[in-house]
From TrEMBL:
The lineage of its organism: Bacteria, Bacillati, Actinomycetota, Actinomycetes, Streptosporangiales. This is Low-affinity putrescine importer PlaP. It is a multi-pass membrane protein. It comes from the Bacteria. Gene3D superfamilies: Amino acid/polyamine transporter I. It comes from Nonomuraea coxensis DSM 45129.
Amino acid sequence: MSVDEDSRRLAELGYKQELARTWSGFSNFAISFSIISILAGCFTTFGQAWNNGGPIAISWGWPVISLFILIIGFCMAELVSAYPTAGGIYWWAAKMGKPIHGWFTGWLNLIGLIAVTASVDYGCATFLNIVLARLTGGAWAGTLPQTFLLFVIVLALHALINIFSHRLISLLQNVSVWWHVAGAVIVVAILVFAPSDHQSLGFVFGGTNNNSGFGDGSDGLPFWLYVLPLGFLLTQYTITGFDACAHVSEETHGAARTAARGLWQSIFYSAIGGWILLLAFLFAATNVDELNKQGGFVGAIFETALSSPLATVVFAISTIGQFFCGMSCVTSMSRMTYAFSRDGAVPGWRLWSKVDRNRTPVNAIIAGCVVAALITLPALYAPAGLTTPVAFYAVVSIAVIGLYLAFLIPIWLRLRMGDAFQPGPWTLGRKYKALCWIACVEIVIVSIYFIMPFSPAGVPGSDGFTWTSVNYAPIAVGVVLILIALWWTLSARHWFTGPRRTVDEETETV
């Protein structure tokens, strides 16, 4: 499909071609592959799975949950093929449903994208902290305030790259893919050949662990019904953000096909690569006591199984991968902010929907990064003894809940439309019914689990309760949902009509 044909299809959907259409199909795939980033999520949220389930939450949990996520991806690929717009999920919901569906989908998606940007960049700052401490021989202390400072610096760098290097972003996405592939291969090779011994198959595929504090640390019924599912946050968080393929579809050649293909393929290849990487972690996790002592922090594996120089190499590979991931997150988040704003849904929408002379939504980039920094402020505080603040996992939960609930609405609406839905060139055919139902049920279950407390200290009224242990995801998501519901009821329902047509009559007749 030529650029003119892409622009014509966009005009049929109601929009002028304002963003520069310079991305290839590979670049479209690359942004979602980079945001999923097995060098980010597999490293930063490993502890969540280790403490809540242990090896089986990873060795079995990863492939099982990945399969469900791939099904969600198939459902969304069909939608992006039919509606290749920067608004992505929000546009689909408004098109297939009513303005209220677009309203809630847009806000949930925007919340999720800002939270995933915050969590990725905070994870990058955490690992950069470690690298600096190792390279300086401990002169860099790596305190929580220092981590937050690095987090703000990383956010600022990502904003600047997105503002001033539009064409470079596409190139860096491609570089990011190969960094993730080569980096993962190098890390796996190091963990296979460098350690003097490895764990057994029985440990990797049958070992359990319960450091959550629930169920007295045993593997009884509470473990299987509550603790273990909390460990699945590792997979559900790592393999997310793949809606980026839709958000940059207005900048992609042949988007009706390439964006759909890029979306599901980014999930598929990340699932395979991530599983291999995580299995390498588990086989190298021979010092279980130290890993438990550090709260399941993956760095304990590298520090105990590898020489100091090799451990530093692994930390550095992950840090650079996370930097690429955060850069891609800012790109996706800013495009969603721009698209939602041009339809008048965000306060100050005229400001956020502007593009500069390079056709880049500069104001949307800055605004999203500022909000990402603000929602991560609680990470300045952590319970004693924890390497990673509970606030980090709370932001992770906000990202997962916001994004997957945003995915749920258009998938449900497509299911409801049935044969009235007009598919694009990439379609599920008659299999859409079974796949959409599976996707909807999985998202509902996941969203319920990830608003739950991560430890007894985070349960109000329990002995030892502390605010630094609270999973504030339900508070953050709940407050925002209440506010946007009130806003809809009192005001927006009178003027918000969904996507606005920005294409003029001449463009429409081309």
